[in-house]
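$ fold --in a.seq
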Amino acid sequence: MAKQWLTCRECHYVVDPDTQSCPNCGSSSLTEDWAGYVIIAHPETSEIAQKMEVTEPGKYALKVR
């Protein structure tokens, strides 16, 4: 069975299941309880990135519980 991706509760960055802390913000508060994600390639020109307050490219969860 495939491992569940983890998401940072602070910045919503989606990380590998073996990760201990978020490489984006440094938080160790990671969860498997999230839904949907968006890939942001160019946050400086993305309207979605502005609404989500994202400054780094990557995968971000839309809903984190």
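$ fold --in b.seq
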Amino acid sequence: MMLYLRQPTGLICILGNKRMNDKKRNVRKNGSMHAYLFLLPSLTGVLVLFVIPYLDVLRRSFLDGTGQRFVGMDNYKTVVENTSFRLAAGNTVLFLAVCVPLLLFLSLLIAIYLQKNKVIGNWLKSVFLLPMAMPVASIVLLWNVLFTRNGFLSGFLGLFGVAGQNWLNTRYSFAILVFSYIWKNLGYDIVLWLAALATIPSEIYEAARVDGAGEGQCFLHITMPNLWSSLFLILTLSLINGFKVFREAYLVAGDYPEQHIYLLQHLFNNWFRDLAVNKLAAGAVLMGLVLFVLIMVFQKLFDRETS
């Protein structure tokens, strides 16, 4: 007589699956730990250089000038009612409202042209990126050569009987500052647009042209819809770079420039020199909140368009 032993196959499968799941869980756990370890230096830098200083600025915005007495919202009220703050805030908003859309539009047009003309495009990319590599002192020297009373622009206009003057101290100073911002950041945005354009498959354009679509239709119905996600990133970076033009304006025009180019950074710099830390902290918090709200609004709009 032969005996057959039944194997508990169901139980073995359950135990095997449990061991496999435990093994996968351990692998994921170890992988997460390794990822956090790799991120630890960067997270530490962000915490020490950004989060803690911002919290300290937020704390100081509710204290008096000595940092000893709590004054509530008095610093914010003082800042908002300050005439210089209103002038600087208005100039900064106008500057960003003019510069950022103009920069995005010009850089996109040039990027599309460079993508279609690859032979000359590689050379022109280096030309457009050159201003970013120039030190601020060199840019200031260039502006002095171009726009001072004895500069190139005054000499050129003198040929037509126009009297020379320091153009950085006239109502044209705002246009010069806009030109400076676009000239310096154009190459950076062009590179970002080119990277975004490279992600669009060329087969889509070929199929559209076979169906009779023109350049305008391809741009509106293929290029722009595929660039929405990249547009948010480029817009945010351009907005942040708009606050970095202060160095050129400050080195050329000093602490108190012509009123059309008196920006928030000028005001904050003067408050810092006067040791008005409470007003400086309140102004910085207000500016940070406005930037945060703007970025959140843009993100909502772009997410809605993308979806």
